[in-house]
Amino acid sequence: MRNSKILLIGLRAIANEIAKNLVLAGIGSLTVLDPEVVTEDDLASQFFIQEEHIGMNRAEAAAPSIQKLNPRVTIHSDTASPSSKPPTFFSQFDITIATELDLDTLISINTSCRQCSRPFYSTASYGLYGYIFADLISHTFVIERDKSNIETKLAPETQTRRVISSRTKKEGDKVVEFVTKEENYSPLADAVNCPIDPTWRPRKRRTVPVALPCIKALWEFIRISPTHSYPTFSRTDLATFTRLATEAIANLGLPADMLKASFISSFVEGCTSELAPVAAILGGVLAQDVINVLGKREQPLQNFLVFDGEVNAGPVLTLHPEGMEKEENGNGNGAGGAMEASMAEVVSLD
Asked: Which terminus in the chain has less CB density within 10 A, N or C?
């Protein structure tokens, strides 16, 4: 980890948390890329910049404060637009993290990272809601556990994960098993269009956070907006956003009555806000996952976490298109082209 090179794109509230956690953990170097300048609004949600930085580039303004957290970590700032970077630019980094970007830009960066076989994360917060997406392409990691009486089989465990090796080591009176697993991922361009597993019962479908179709609707609203801006609380924007959210929930295969007018209004009203508790949760979870991935320890995020601050939880949903290898362990949850929810993987503010 101490030789790792991380690229962090965008330097708003969540990125502040990510930078803090990664630098304190002792990565090798962090490059912060942001073409935007510091505004008064930034002062309310960021802790690396001060009032005197207003008008300066965000990355250049924050870099000295980030450096003070850990002098052993090399900090670089880049003021260019991420859209101006060729695919080869991303090859110099072990992991790229993109924050608070529109969908088209995220897909472009994700595609570039895949071309040079580099892991990619994206994240954003929208008031009380937010998400984390991970595309590690193909990632191997080791789970350390006490050896049980049940033999570890070298076989698929889920639609995306398989056990590829196992070894044991005696430590005192107990035997420890080291199990190596491999997770396979889908790019954001594919994952964003996946429906819910058609085998899911209605009750299980209702466990999917309604924030998910609203996040997808927001991405589409920004894409079709002449100014590529967020929706306002105007009647026209609300009508357009409601139509897009309705289409998104239908495409996901979720019950239409999950989408309430009151939720849409609340989401739109707060989607431009950055709340410190939400940023701390999302930034902390993403940074910890990056640390685990760099160390090739523990199960990584697979692959889309949706955070709902109203209920203080963030289930991890597995989104994959048609063609992914089906689950072969006989538990019946491996339909291709499905979204599989791992409700045990949840973050909470409590």
From this structure: C
